[in-house]
Amino acid sequence: MNPLIFTTILMTVLLGTMIVMMSSHWLMIWIGFEMNLLAIIPILMKKYNPRTMEASTKYFLTQATASMLLMMAIIINLMHSGQWTIMKVFNPTASIIMTSALAMKLGLTPFHFWVPEVTQGISLTSGLILLTWQKLAPMSILYQISPSINLNILLTMAVLSILVGGWGGLNQTQLRKIMAYSSIAHMGWMTAVLAYNPTLTMLNMLIYIMMTLTMFMLFIHSSSTTTLSLSHTWNKTPLTTTLILITLLSMGGLPPLSGFMPKWMIIQELTKNSSIILPTLMAIMALLNLYFYMRLTYSTSLTMFPSTNNMKMKWQFETKRITLLPPLIVMSSLLLPLTPMLSILD
Amino acid sequence: MMTYIVFILSVIFVVSFVGFSSKPSPIYGGLVLIVSGGVGCGIIMNFGGSFLGLMVFLIYLGGMLVVFGYTTAMATEQYPEVWVSNTTVMGVFLLGLLMEVMLVLYVLKSEEVGVVFKFSGVGDWAIYDIGDSGVFSEEIMGVAALYSYGAWVVIVTGWSLFVGVLVILEVTRGD
Description:
A: 16 helices, globular, transmembrane helix (chain B), respiratory chain (chain B)
């Protein structure tokens, strides 16, 4: 793609999310979502094969439907409150419609079906942008309307997302689908605590973005999209096998790594609000996530995965320069002692 | 009839929307879009917005839909789908028509319609008005406001349209 056009389109994606996050008028928020959607389509379609085009079309259709539902909720809110300012949504119907629209944008169950298919059909870098940057805008709106969201619907979607994210990722060997299911599960954790303490949602989003960025950078570095090709990293750069191990265990939520911090805080906040069964269920279902991360670490760093002899030597191409990998790795594994700093997110 | 003109026009509006959402070939979709555009213009004019209605005709129908019609004519297939050619399309169209007819009967029977939210007559959709603009019409004031208070909206929508063109060119470029 022409670099000038690519820069313009990428800046428009950024501008769209910024407009969503900083507007006070519902219509501008909707415009921001549409701008974001429009500009990310050519980024998803970087290579021109039918797979990417199908993935971009699926993404466009689901997100456009979600935008339509959002507009409907905005208009019902306008009818019942008479004003366009962002604050809590005044009508229960509008609140439910808006929550469903934002859940479709985020990929929460029962609207999660597009996430694995779209993530699998696009290149690794586009998948990275899709699973990290695109989650910021809907989450910021959820944060702003959080006082008025129907708790039953929110918690149902959250718990089902954690379940689907864990269970669905069990049978996958393609790395992009694994990251997609991991994204669904993490979104579930984020929305579960939204009604109780939205600061923790932001904390979880921050840590999730760092960990997902790290994982994708490591995958891009070894150009691997399947478990099998990831298992050959011991040959290419042995150091990244250790880094993959640490980051994957952090994503699984194991102490003393930083992925434990959001899960710990969320469970603590939920139990403070006297719900015991819910965080127990969530923690148990997060074990499913941990299982397939552990399977990846087993094949990558803990064992030398069986492969044919001619695949044991990989081509030594010129090393790609990966942006910010060392700081990201440090941040995604060692942030746990900094937990008291989460008060800055208020 | 003139007291119910807005109601009749909005019924035709919804029916033509049902007509193109039941997905016949794009040529026929464009045909009912023309009808819905014209009828929508009529609805706006009945509330006093003659400028905006003529804008719909000129820009929407006369600019965008003409270009759409030409491109669809270039890309059309030999036997395009009509509403009666395919059982699915006809089924969806009839279902939409049936729902609209039932809604219209409900509205005509009772004062107040409470499907998702309460709607009691055209008064609910009245234009929000400050009240102290006796001499000027509100829609012209709206257009003027777009360019004064709403400058940010103009910038954002202008940029979105520009990027829309870039995106479309990029997507259809191929390799």
